[in-house]
Amino acid sequence: MIRAIVIHGHFYQPPRENPWLESVEVQDSAAPYHDWNERVTAECYAPNTAARRVDEHDRVLDIVNNFEKISFNVGPTLFAWLARHRPDVYAKILEADRASVAARGGHGNALAQVYNHMIMPLAPRRDKVTQVRWGIEDFRARLGREPEGLWLPETAVDGESLEVLAEAGVKFTILAPHQALRVRPLGAETWEAADGIDPSRAYLWRGPRGLTLAIFFYDGPISRAIAFERLLDRAEHVVAWLNAAFSDARPWPQLVHCATDGETYGHHRRFGEMALAAAVQQIEAEGAATLTNYGAFLAAHPPTHEVEIREQTSWSCAHGVERWRADCGCRTRGDWHQRWRAPMREALDWLRDQIDPVFEARASAHLKDPWAARDAYVAIVLDRSAQRLDGFFAAHARAPLDTAARVEARRLLELERNRLLMYASCGWFFDEISALEPVQTLRYAAMALQYLDDLGGGRREDEFVRRLGAAPSNVADLRDGAEVYRRLIRPTVVSLSRVVAHYAVTGFRQEHDADGRVYAYRVQRLDQARETSDGTALRVAHVRVSSEVTGDTRDAVYAMLHFGGHDFSCGTGPWVDQAVYEAMKADLLARCARRSVADLVRGLDEHFPGGVASLSHLFLEERRRVLADVIREARGDLPADLGGESEARALCARGGRADPGGAGPRRAPRAGAGGRRRARVAAGARCDARARLRPGRGRAGARVDPRPLAAAVRRAPSGRPGPRCGRRGAVARACRPGDRAHRGRPAPRRPVRPLGDSEPLLPALAGSARRAQHAVAARGHPRLQSRRVTPP
Predict the structure, then answer these.
(1) Cβ(451)–Cβ(418) under 8 Å?
(2) What are the angstrom distances between the C-alpha of 259 and each of 302, 312, 681?
(3) Rounded distance between C-alpha atoms, residue 201 and residue 305, angstroms
(4) What letters, b where the CB count within 10 A reaches 16 and e where it falls short, cover 731-764?
(5) Cα angle: 773, vertex 774, 779; to 5 degrees
(6) Residue 712 pLDDT more than 50?
(7) Going by DSSP bridges, is the β-strand pair 521-533/71-74 parallel, antiparallel, or unpaired?
(8) How far apart are the C-alpha atoms of 427 and 324, rounded to whole Å?
(9) In whole angstroms, how large is the CA radius of gyration of the chain?
(10) Which of 737, 728, 743, 731 is nearest to 177 (CA)?
(11) Hey, which of 331, 340, 511, 728 would disulfide with 433, CB 3.0 to 4.6 Å?
(12) Strand, coil or helix: what is 111?
């Protein structure tokens, strides 16, 4: 009697990149790691590529790659991050799939996935096609073979989604047992209700036009026990449950299989990867069943029964797919509503309906078939090299395109890419519209709105924000989705002037190369002039900024004043012509030579009437680095008065608070005294700084008045996290295995407040440090004698 076992892991992280920078910014809630991708990789993905098998005395017997033994899918957005930031882990996953292909008759363990985890039943057919094609092409590019199976996000399914999979050549997918409606043997006329469907075989789904697809329905009780019921505490219990699911009453080849979030093995369950490795070893050693994958089992044992599915269902919502469009009761925190879900989806659907006609009309001028070009655009997302772009436009352009036409076509396709990304399922999965995932969704919407406006599609932001006003927040201070957008999204929008200002300010701390890079932008310095007068430094420059995403290239000018410490003032503007630039440069250099700071500042205002940028306009990572430098410099002179390390870190965390929509304050894991200290800072706690800040004397006897600094700390928002919630409510527990305590997050948290709320700290910090330096220098302190001292 043939008996086979498959263990499937769904490994996924949502897209977390800042849409303008194409980079994941620091997320304080993931402390002590940089962001949630990094944390979950350290706790799950990396350990599963090198899982330890130990004996009864915890001595390591060997180290194995679990991906060689289990069925798995890795989401394209996670795969892309791993390729950039953890190439070692990425390479081991690819290597494991190659080993499984060799070991299992050409059938690899890896499955493809819908590209950015869109809930397929809620998407129009055109989006379903693009999402599947992008997912398959991403798989093909990374693993070098055609995928046999494809994972549907949240196993959310309808007939049209299965039809799209079958049209794309997918052979099978995996669903939850309650998603089967009725079954019958092949060739039979009578259907039987599928309550308690037998998961031990593959089933055939028949679609229109002769389309077919195999479906595996995983074993629900085993999967729930692994995800929620501590079955992973002992590997032998996992094996016992798997073996117990076989039945002598079944004369056909039997498959026992389970499916959970891959993060169960190490992230949700600590040491879960070790339990998985031990279970796999025991299964292979006992030989009672063969460890295999779905492709190999399907090839050897084709379906003998056909099935009809329950439309509009998923593994993580007891109400079908309502979790992604309604306040259905599926949630992680019992005291919060989700009435914001429907208005947010309606606002995004409205935006989609504004974008698509503009894309089709404008792109038709350059591309033979705009929608076919969108389906193929993932090739450019994967590789933006000149050679790949040439091949893409050779295949899809109506005629050879000049540089400007190419840029417009790429911007139109990026408009659509961001429009697709704003539908990632995590935007609705959790409880609060101001949480990390919905804010990321709204960032993609803001990016799409920016492209739409720039491309002549009209300014639609005001109407979009008005529609978000119907989405109530659980946080009284934020009120609704419109306020969330105004406070947490709009301040993070990146323009050319902000890129130039960031380049200029960071160039004072560390000189840029003549041809440098600022995240997803290339910045070439074409000309620069410098002057210093009485400690005030001036730089005037002409730069060329190119977007690596769209190829859009523009010239700009800037004038930068540095008064010391964190005190910067930077004016930016578009390039007009050489004469205008030379006149501006000569005027500012002359004013600087006259040693009149006031005149220099007036000159900056005259040449850049649109306003000037400061430290707060830096992108988050560099803003924090500059603040850390400022605090280190201040503490180097005044260690006794500024207190211990925890206070300095707390001040740095407040001045460099995560950008709105970035990681909000959340409780970090306990890990001894150091871990608790990190947790206080990462959570935005007020620390002991307020209690410890009191007038005192420095090493040279200078009296420091910390009252302005203490007042700023009192005014800064606390951002303390909400209470940690339990694993799952009754409804969610009944839904599906692997239901996220993450997706990288153990608990919901209060939203981060805008940086502007904590800006009073900056002048207070600078003022306190300047007064202290002046007092110490007056006493002949040797470390300050060579410095320019500004009187209070």
Answers:
(1) yes
(2) 20, 20, 37
(3) 8
(4) ebbebbbbbbbbbbbbbbbbbbbbbebbbbbbeb
(5) 95
(6) no
(7) unpaired
(8) 8
(9) 29
(10) 737
(11) 340
(12) strand
pLDDT tens, 415-472? Answer: 999 999 999 999 999 999 999 999 999 999 999 999 999 999 999 999 999 999 999 9
State how beta strands 150-151 and 110-113 pair: parallel
% of the chain exceeding 90 in pLDDT: 71
- Give 163-190 as a 3 state SS string: HHHHHCCCCEEEECHHHEEEEEECCCCC
Element (H, E) at 578: helix 578-593
DSSP for 124-147?
-HHHHHHHHHHHHHHHHHHHSS--
Q: What is the pLDDT of residues 228-269, one digit of tens each?
A: 999 999 999 999 999 999 999 999 999 999 999 999 999 999
- The model's pTM: 0.82
Q: Which ranges in 488-568 belong to alpha helices (H)?
A: 496-509
**Whole-angstrom distance, CA of residue 682 vs CA of residue 665:** 6
Q: Is 270 helix (H, G, I), strand (E, B) or coil?
A: coil
For residue 269 the two structure tokens come to 């369950």
**Residue 738, SS3 per DSSP:** coil
Tokens 């697809």: give the residue: 213
Residue type, 51: A
Q: Could you tell me if 112 and 139 are in contact, meaning their C-beta atoms sit under 8 angstroms apart?
A: yes
> What pairs with residue 216 in β-bridges?
174
308-362 pLDDT tens trace:
999 999 999 999 999 999 999 998 888 999 999 999 999 999 999 999 999 999 9
Q: Count helices and strands (H / E) in the chain.
A: 30, 21
- Collapse the DSSP code of 301 into the 3-class scheme (helix H, G, I; strand E, B; otherwise coil) and give the result: coil
> Containing H/E element for 562?
strand 553-564
C-alpha of 422 from chain center: 12
Residue type, 705: D
pLDDT band at 658 (very low <50, low <70, confident <90, very high): low
Residues 6+ apart with CB under 8 A from 535: 563, 564, 788
| Contacting residues for 582 by C-beta, under 8 A, at least 6 apart | none
Q: Are 324 and 345 in contact (CB under 8 A)?
A: yes
Q: Are 116 and 15 in contact (CB under 8 A)?
A: yes
**Start-to-end Cα distance in the chain:** 89
Structure tokens at 443: 């960032």
Q: Helix 272-286 and helix 235-244: axis angle, to 10°? A: 50
What is the H or E stretch that residue 520 is in? Answer: none
Q: Is 519 within 8 Å of 619 (Cβ atoms)?
A: yes
Helices (H), 638-695: 639-642, 645-655, 672-682, 689-692
Q: Where does 235-352 show beta strands of DSSP type E? A: 254-261, 290-291, 305-309
List the single range of 124-133, 144-153, 543-552, 627-636 with lowest mean pLDDT: 627-636
Tally the C-alpha atoms within 13 A of residue 242's C-alpha that lie toward its C-beta: 31
pLDDT digits 0-9 by tens, 214-234: 999 999 999 999 999 999 999
**Contact present, 471 and 346 (Cβ < 8 Å):** no
The highest-confidence range among 194-198, 386-390, 591-595, by mean pLDDT, is 386-390
3-state secondary structure of 329: coil
CA distance 89 to 78: 12
Rounded distance between C-alpha atoms, residue 333 and residue 408, angstroms: 45
Structure tokens at 439: 């804010």
Q: Name residue 149's beta-bridge partners.
A: 172
